[in-house]
Amino acid sequence: ADLKIATAESCTGGLVSAVITDIPGASDVFERGYITYSNEAKIEALGVAKALIDDQGAVSERVARAMAEGALRESRADLAVAITGVAGPGASALKPEGMVCFGLARKNAETKTVTVEFGPLGRSKVRDASAHYAFSMILNAL
Questions:
Q1: Which string of b and e fits 8-39 if b means at least 16 CB within 10 Å?
Q2: What pLDDT, on a 0 to 100 scale, did the predictor assign at position 1?
Q3: How many CB atoms lie within 10 A of CB 73?
Q4: CA 70: distance to chain centroid?
């Protein structure tokens, strides 16, 4: 049985899904992608608790974990990666531009989360760096 991947993307807006589906034969591994940009989308499509977002903010490792676990639960994938961050502009003191939280959930394994501070590279570069980082997480998991 081939491994299937799902994505749950916020600040990357589908970049990870797009890169995967650029590869011929992607249908063998790519199960589905969720672009849950709004908080409501995270709640409705992935089952992220509203209270968690209210308490932690959408850009947090706990929300990234809930997004990844939700994508795994709601799909037929074996592995799900989630990305939520501040691509910029519009940072706050607590959540600077370039701060991105990642979650990686696998069936029968502990979910991994990490926060990466890419810095104020500009919106496009933060999004690209985030997509690259998500791929490194997927490859490490495999």
A1: bbbbbeebbbebbeeeeeeeebbbbbbbbbeb
A2: 55
A3: 14
A4: 11
Q: What whole-number distance in Å separates Cα of residue 130 and Cα of residue 54?
A: 24
pTM of the model: 0.96
**Distance in angstroms (rounded) separating the CA atoms of residues 107 and 94:** 33
pLDDT in tens, 100-125: 999 999 999 999 999 999 999 999 99
Question: SS3 sequence, the chain?
Answer: CCCCEEEEECCCCCHHHHHHHCCCCHHHCEEEEEECCCHHHHHHHHCCCHHHHHHHCCCCHHHHHHHHHHHHHHCCCCEEEEEEECCCCCCCCCCCCCEEEEEEEECCCCCEEEEEECCCCCHHHHHHHHHHHHHHHHHHHC
Residue-wise pLDDT tens digits, 32-63: 999 999 999 999 999 999 999 999 999 999 99
